[in-house]
Amino acid sequence: MVFSLHELACLDAVIAEGSFQAAAEKLHRTHPAVHAAVKNLEQRLGVALLDRSQYRVGLTPAGEAFRRQAATVLREAAALETLGLQLSQGEETDLRVVVGDLTPTEEVLRRLKRFFKAHPKTRLHLHFEVIGGPWERLLAEEADLIIHHIDKSDARFEWVDLGTVTLLPVTAPGFLAEAVTRDLTPGQMRAYVQVIIRDTARQPGRDYFVIKDAPSWTVADQHTKQALIVQGMGWGHMPLHLVEKELRTGKLISLEGRHFKRSKLDLVAARLRGRPVGPVARALWSYLAEAK
């Protein structure tokens, strides 16, 4: 048994609008055309779908069940029509963006929210990765764009600068058994637990700031790392934007000195050089470049 989308749309509109005339106006059809479409449905099914005994047209129990399924078909048809339009215009239906662990997340999410609000037909697939994870996803073409730091000498990447991230070594007051001075050495810190983040890359690369042979706690993200350090369970390098408040209030202290220094990394939006991109991806690239 075959039903046309026109017939299903007519039934849906009659119920939504409460009358054949109102449904006809909504669909830009004539009253007889809408009436005939619903009548054809009822005759093909052999059951009454509409209760016409009241002033406002309603559904019979059979009509309720049928309309629920019809609504699903209409939604899928609308989605298919949108997809066809996007494909004909060359627009992407999906974009994959990976955000790295050092990124000021709230600001980046605000930017992405504004952009995709203006591009509602493109679905955002957003992933959060750590250390080498963003690079690995991009190089494997599992991401269209990453927001992270990169090796700018790597010719495989092209990028736009978004800002800088400052990293500094911190711990909670009283965590060290000795006084914190500018002469604190890696050898002295080897006795203390270092909180480090687990690389999400399938083939992890280099470790950052890790003291070899020191005891360690391994965590999945910067926020968990911050919580452990604040609780006096270890020390580690943290993005300044995540610990500024704790440093001001004395919950954390800096371990900066001759051997432990703060460092800065360029935060960028990066994509593979020379890889074809669609109009929405190009628009996102331009938007991020202009919003820095």
Automatic annotation (TrEMBL):
PANTHER family: HTH-TYPE TRANSCRIPTIONAL REGULATOR, TRANSCRIPTIONAL REGULATOR-RELATED. Pfam families: HTH_1, LysR_substrate. The keyword Aminoacyl-tRNA synthetase does not apply. Keywords: DNA-binding, Transcription, Transcription regulation. One of its GO terms (molecular function) is DNA-binding transcription factor activity. The keyword Chloroplast does not apply. InterPro entries: LysR_HTH_N, LysR_subst-bd, WH-like_DNA-bd_sf, WH_DNA-bd_sf. Residues 3-60 form the HTH lysR-type domain. It comes from the Bacteria. This is LysR family transcriptional regulator. Belongs to the LysR transcriptional regulatory family.
